[in-house]
Amino acid sequence: MSRFLLAVLILACVGSAIGVVHARHRHRLLFVELSRLEKARDELNIEFGRLQLEQATVAESNRIDQVARLRLGMKFPEAGDVVVIRP
Amino acid sequence: MKGSVKNAAPNRSRSRARFNLRGRVLMVACALGLCSISLVGRAAYVQLVNSDFYQREGNERFVRDIEIPTSRGMITDRNGEPVAVSSPVESIWCDPKELLKTPDRLPELARALGEPLELLTSRISQRAEKEFYYLKRRINPDEARKILAHGVPGVYSKREFRRFYPQGEAMAHVLGFTNIDDRGQEGVELAFDEWLRGSPGEKKVIRDRRGRIVENVDLVHQAQPGKDLVLSIDRRIQFLAYRELRNALVSNNASSGSAVVLDVATGEVLAMVNLPTFNPNAASLGKPDAHRNRAIIDMIEPGSTIKPITAAAALTAGVVTPGTQFNTAPGWMPNGRYRTTDTHNYGVLDVTGIIRKSSNVGAAKLAALVPDQQYYEFLRKFGYGSKTGSGFPGEAAGQFPPPSRWSGTTKQTMSYGYGLSATPLQIAHAYATIGNGGRAIAPTFIKGQRNESTEVLSPAIASQVLHMMQTVTEPGGTATQAAILGYHVAGKTGTARKASAGGYSREYRAFFAGLVPVENPRFSMVVVIDNPQAGSIYGGIVSAPVFRNVMEGSLRLMDVPPDDIETWIAAQEKNEAKRPLAARLPTAIAEPATAVDVRAALPAPLPGNVQ
């Protein structure tokens, strides 16, 4: 009986040792995957920031003002140009 | 052991017969046994007893904690438009030792960097003993990639973040700027540095001898990217205010100016502009004088803009009604050794008339009826002499001495805005309080943050004062140029002589402070123009047009319904009568023809990155 118990314990010990190695290996793999995804996320965030910056630069008020006035010949409607409709 | 050898030597020389094999084997076995015991003992000591120390020492040779860089949060305006963005840039660096091993590649590198070869060679050879040297800092990542593509050994790049401010000069003072370590130095960048900054993460890695990362071991803690911040500023109103203030400064040949727009109901700062300004994107930030957010930091004597508050104090004290009459003839009255004077002799004025004509003598007579302590406490409640609570770095409280430090003429002088000082933001805040039915709300730069409001003036008196200020922009008032078609405008002009060493100089400040629309005010705005030198010095002529132009645009942008539609329709009918019928018809038919031209005239999409 006690011999059987000993065999079980030895098997369990070896099994858990292999389990630890396996878990450790999976941890490494997942960590690599996590790092890769985080890097991808950061890259996308940074790209997004850059695009926003680009958009904000293109849509800068002073530039819009200049383009509208000089290149498109737009002007602000004067009070006389606005037609008020009685409700 | 040595002893046994000594003992053995004479034995050998004496006789072979006395050779004791057993004793010798035992001795060697003992010696070997002792050796192995000491080895096992040592191994056990290293592995079991003192294992931590050796593990740590071992790890220090190849395991490293490295920082995970993180970017600073973005700042947007109230509509989500980015106004401060951290963008990655690359810095090209080299290892001069390694680079100089292949000097034949230097001309190629020089060409890639766009730099003369001689300069590059001398720069690098001066640092031949170093292992790190920046070749080019903070450049566009695409450019960096091109340089690295040449594959010159010993040339590397490193990611850094740089702050960009798409609105440039127009918002420079509110936003402030960061230093090279990405820490806020001024303005909102400084006030909310903790919030924006985030914290870099840390991870454990295994590195080889040359410093390359072989394996990621563990995450010590995650990088916390900086949080975004939504300001109460409206980019469009901000730009409008900036443009109009700049135009006014140029046309009046003035030295500096400030404008503040507040949302009356929430206390949010919608725009805050100062001139002169600086370009926060430039490498050198110019003169420090231009960095000052004058609207919050400079203390100025508020001049006549304080008269509506004086009137409100008198009305609250119950000593006058809006119709109470004062005789301001002959247009001056004694003020200690000096005189309180009006620009004209206005004769008999009621309280409304004092505001409309901006009579100093009238204001002095109003204040004379209010007890000192009561007048002081009333102005304190309006925020004079204390910080507004906006949380902006370096905010000034203004100077407003208590009655115990007043001389005989102090109150009379204060009643029309001298002898005390306030920031333009404080003035805008005091006016917003009147516009908000007498409830004071501390201004804020953050969208949606609503500070507690306290009632400092009864709603009935607030409304009376508002209607008195409305007469200022109507015919007969001091600021007819502030009138906006379709809206009733309440405002007050101010023209104050600037204090200088030992008295008042010949330089002036032109003020206009006002509220629109009078029925249910939405905006409170203050315009201060310093030292106008192109002829006119009066607030009603120098500053009021800035107010009108900015407010006209803001009312349209924020969809505020007109409260004076009758005047607008009347003006329109008057105009139409003069114009031919054809001009009155809508010109919708002509539009498709011009649509094509408009597209052609649009600018081409921007090439590449804007950096």
Automatic annotation (TrEMBL), chain A:
What UniProt keywords apply to this chain's record, in alphabetical order?
A: Cell cycle, Cell division, Cell inner membrane, Cell membrane, Membrane, Transmembrane, Transmembrane helix
According to its record, how does it sit in the membrane? Answer: Single-pass type II membrane protein
User: Pfam families in the record, alphabetically?
Assistant: FtsL
- Where in or outside the cell is it found? Cell inner membrane; Cell membrane
| Major localisation | membrane
Which InterPro entries does the record match to this protein?
A: Cell_div_FtsL
Question: What does the entry give for GO biological process?
Answer: cell division
Q: How does it assemble?
A: Part of a complex composed of FtsB, FtsL and FtsQ.
**Briefly, what is this protein's role?**
Essential cell division protein. May link together the upstream cell division proteins, which are predominantly cytoplasmic, with the downstream cell division proteins, which are predominantly periplasmic.
State the family named in the UniProt similarity comment for this chain: Belongs to the FtsL family.
- The name under which this protein is listed is Cell division protein FtsL
Q: What organism is the protein native to?
A: Pseudoxanthomonas gei
